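Notes to self after the call with IL:
- keep both proteins in one doc
- input above output, always
- annotate only the second one for now

Protein 1:
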Amino acid sequence: SVQVKNTHELYYLRTQCVQEKMEQLEKPSKDPLRICVATCNRADYSKLAPIINTFRMIVQDEFDIGSQLHTIVRGEDEAAMVESVGLALVKLPDVLQRLKPDILLVHGDRFDALALATAAALMNIRILHLEGGEVSGTIDDSIRHAISKLAHYHAVCTRSAERHLISMCEDHSRILLAGCPSYDKLLSAYQRDDYADIIKSWLGADVKEESYIVALQHPVTTDIKNSIKIYELMLDALVSFNKKTLILFPNIDAGSKEMVRVMRRKGIEQHPNFRAVKHVPFDQFIQLVAHAGCMIGNSSCGVREAGAFGTPVVNLGTRQTGRETGENVLHIYGDGNAVQRILKFLQAIDLSEPLQKKFCFPPVKECISQDIDHILETQSALSVDLGGTNLRVGIVSMKGKVVKKYNQLNPKTFEERIDLILNMCKQAMADAVHLNCRILGVGVSTGGRVNPQDGKVLHSTKLINEWTSVDIRTPLSSALHLPVWVDNDGNCAALAERKFGHGKGVENFVTIITGTGIGGGIIQHNELIHGHTFCAAELGHIMVSLEGPECMCGSRGCIEAYSSGLALQREAKRLHDEDLLLVEGMSLNNKEQVNATHLITAAHLGNSKAESVLHTAGTALGLGVVNILHMINPSLVILSGVLAADYEHRVGHVIRERALPTAQDTRVLVSELEDPALLGAASMVLDYTTRRTY
């Protein structure tokens, strides 16, 4: 077994599991899946039938019935619904033990479907739930969401439903945006040539298309009295319309018995303009709805299937409150390929995976516990920033305030560097007591490639000596008696933006550091991306030219070779050597070293040569950003570091000029954080020790 000590380890274990899962999915399955499809009524059968196919309908479609249960307790009131669920729970274990399915397919939001899902979950049977995540405004919502929480896999109809399930902490990787299964049959079958014969068979020979009404009203179990009143008013209105009407009996929810009594009291079954029926086969029902003048009631068919035909619908009451509706309903609910997606999804389920569900809790708003320690002290982190020149330590509060900073030159040897870090941290810890800060841990931001799982620097930049294959976590944690997190400075900048900056609340964004070198970090689906060998987001080494200046990595044409502070310094020296750098308003004494600042100053003062260098550097960075947009498609790019403001305009121009149309509107912002490295290192500590997502 593996003991997960921190969320860095958890992240990497999860990525390894995903990779292994994908490898397993590529292998052919040896044994066919045993799928149990459970249908409870006429409504859910139209959703389930295309994937597999109320008893007579299944027999007509020539499917074998593994078992049939009579679980509905007559009474059609709230107590009868509860008793029906209980009766189903008593009978289902024997059936499921005999059938031994690998997966149970359950649809929708019916109380009897809840019994199925409950039984299967308790018997460790995997559940695929169809059409979860939707909103309709009655007790059906509670039942639907309860089934979703019991289910292991989900096939949803709409993007909104998918988002609802994700916000309910369901695993995004187990949610399939499939579309509505009934639409597959509906879109291919409703234009039958015999629709006129179907209309005649149900409504009479003299009835023409668009001259009749289809009515279907169900009880609202959370407001039975009012729903019966609405039903009575609907029947009165239908009688007054003097139009041929096909009216279907309500379902068996609580209140249905009273609705049927209202129908019979008004003589609807004997009325010459009405045809009252308990059931119409789905393929014929499609034709009747498609060619009706309008549909009236509160059935989900009215707000969903009817939209595919453009049939006008009058939706009564609150039963469908919250449902996605409108003229575009056809595009919302399906394209005719839902069944193939669901079948492929089923085939991809790995039965060797652990059965226990995992929930993906989203980040929560800032909320500091109010126990006495938290009231008296400010929860804080020690941040360490290892740069090529300086070594900085900071005390950072929960809200991103750098309470105190310490700065020293970075020593040249490993031993001196570790000793200095420890001394600076100990001094900061002593000061923290007087500053009323409680130190929760240490976060280290460093240049180079880092394995955050082990707290080690794998390969350093040339700017930091003796910093390759070194363990930072162990000596710091042992001496300071605090947990220690370590990551690359570019990743820390991205974490800082996610917690304190422009990236707060943004699901997908990229941070690019423009300083001595070029680096960055990638946040995808609110997760920091490290990559297989921890070199993801080495953005400075994206090549934008097959030839070009030599980079410190040994290659040529990298962004860093054009756009880094060192690259600008190189060009500034070249211009200075050629007496092309200084312009009026600039001066440089003999002892002063030429650097990137001089080049930028010259460009701002109108030096055309310096302007050209800065233009090329900005273009190279912009091309790199375009490549990033085309690879991972973030919604936001954040430029950080001392050169960010000088590159912002040019990068935005290159994106609009060179990116694909769908990426040209990507926002580019300059970071407003003063110390992204210190803040990012602190965020690792604060997010984990306060039990937030990292």
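Protein 2 (the one to annotate):
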Amino acid sequence: MDQVAGRRHRPEIQKDPFGHGEPTEAYSEDWSFKDHGRPQNAIERFKFPSGMQQYLEAMGTPQETAVDLIKTFSRRALQGKVPEVNKKAIGTLADQSLEVGMTFQAMGVTREEAIASKLDKIIWDAFFTHCENMFPSDTLFRLTRLREISDLRYPAEWNPAARLMKRKIIMHVGPTNSGKTYSALQRLQAAESGAYLSPLRLLAHEVFERMNDAGTPCNLITGEERRYAVTDSEGNPDPRAAKCVSCTVEMVDLNRKIEVAVVDEIQMLADPDRGWAWTHALLSLPAKEIHLCGEPTVVDLVKNICALTNEEVEVHRYDRLSKMEVMDESLYGQLDKIQKGDCVVTFSRKNIFLLKRHIEASTGLRCAVAYGSLPPESRSTQAKLFNDPNSGYDVLVASDAIGMGLNLNIRRIIFEATEKFDGSVVRTLSLTQLKQIGGRAGRFGTEYAVGLVTTLLQRDIPTLKRAMAAPMIDITRAGIQPTADMLQQFSIQMPGAPFSYVLKTFEMMSRNSGLFFLGLFRGMIAAAEILDKIEMPVRERITFISAPIQVRDPTVVEAAVKMARSVSSGKPLAIDEAVELPPLSILETKAKLDLRKLESSHRIVMLYLWLSQRFGDVFQGGLECDAARRKVQCETLIEKALEQANNERLKKKQQREEDKAKSDSINGETNAGEKVFEEEEDQTE
């Protein structure tokens, strides 16, 4: 592919995206950041039929009219006759969008991508304004309606019921290991009614168990599971009887009035993918008291948002309970310096198992593992093994998944690197990521009262020191997302258009205030594209594309399509028709389990359980259903696969020792061969 900045590729013939009309010319949109940052190149991109023409045709504009409008606008814009897109105006708006870029970069999206999207949106908004009087009447009506529906500037007005309440907003802010969440949960436990809103299933489970163990009846509500603490006289679950509910943030009931709500990790409202759920909770929770726990970086933003609702914010600040020190020296690449209680952090599944093998070989210490694609239940089990001084697991090798949701007794955090591949480029970890992960070192009330943080390589020490010493950057914007009603009304104005294109059009036409940004539609659009050819009512389609579909996993995608077809036809689908698992009897044999395949299977089971809560006539749900049993079965097999990986390491070590002993007895000397860490192939993949 030609990577020369600003160079156009040869046009190729492609069919109309909606499957009708004559083929049109299209140019590749492979432009570098330099192109995105220049108004002229952004306008040139805008001219091509692969962009705006498809949007206009989706709104009923004849192809010839659409082409004429685009050419006229582009010509005038390039001549500097459109005030909104002259170089000075674009430059000013691009500078303003730098702040957005930095926010997105901290959450995994590059500044370049954020600015490019901003510039394109500026130009397209100018096009609508400039050509308003030139549109055919039918197109103008639909365009006006679409702009009304996609106006997201006033999210505080979306829930009038919450505006009728006098709510007290209390923030608990501080670093990791400061006790901020503990204080809020104590208030929740004493309340007559309440809810805990968790960022993770794992944390929701933890609070659910904690509340019930303390004698406070508490329900559990996650996307995949419902558990009720109280039953009626006939032994049936009574969802309303428990005084408290622990739920993932997306699953909170915004129609039930409660005394106290605790929203954990409130800084997540800036997350491009899920931030909308925290923002929606902040604006819409019908609670007398709302306790927000998180980082100090979000205090001013919360105050600004609450100013829209005429609500005051009370702020409680907490200091770290245990000390933390950044070491002056790294391990200089020597894994034999790793000790009991250490946690080595790396950023790929392959590196996790590679490091695990090398650490066990060079130190004799056994390693537990934790990473994102490992089921939360398995991560919790691995964390317990690491925390238990008598388990035999003395070291943890983990990804950045440890930054949130696991209680860990860590003596020292060791960064294998301070950079990670984000799906497109290798970039330095954000300030927030380094601080949050590093902050896991040391834990109040344990033998590791002083936490240590260092790196594997000395070259990363300066980066780590700067990050840990630097003040946090304040978060200035919160994510929002349209409601299902908005998307349904929007789709009505685009009859015949694939729903993935409806989402893309909404994303481009939406308008936001300075406090908010539209959350990334990447996951929803990708899911919608997979399901575009399956017949399904719009409302059901909206629900389905909100499901936890791992679009990068072909096995999961195949299962999701099968499930979508079942929803379309109304034909029930059993869990065993969606996923195939090895029987538990395999545990009694020496057969080797495929860990990666089991991880995919677990995603499918969790997707099935999520859908069972929304399409109960198609998918069987409940605590005693086959899918729930398959979940336990899959997690048991995953635990066995992790154990096999460890046992295989021990067997190889024993074999090497036996070979070494034989060699010593024959040759009278030791043949020591040291493998280079970077060059060894990962045999666990």
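Annotation: Confidence is low (pLDDT under 50) at residues 1-37, 93-108, 668-685. The CA atoms of residues 366 and 646 lie 8 Å apart.
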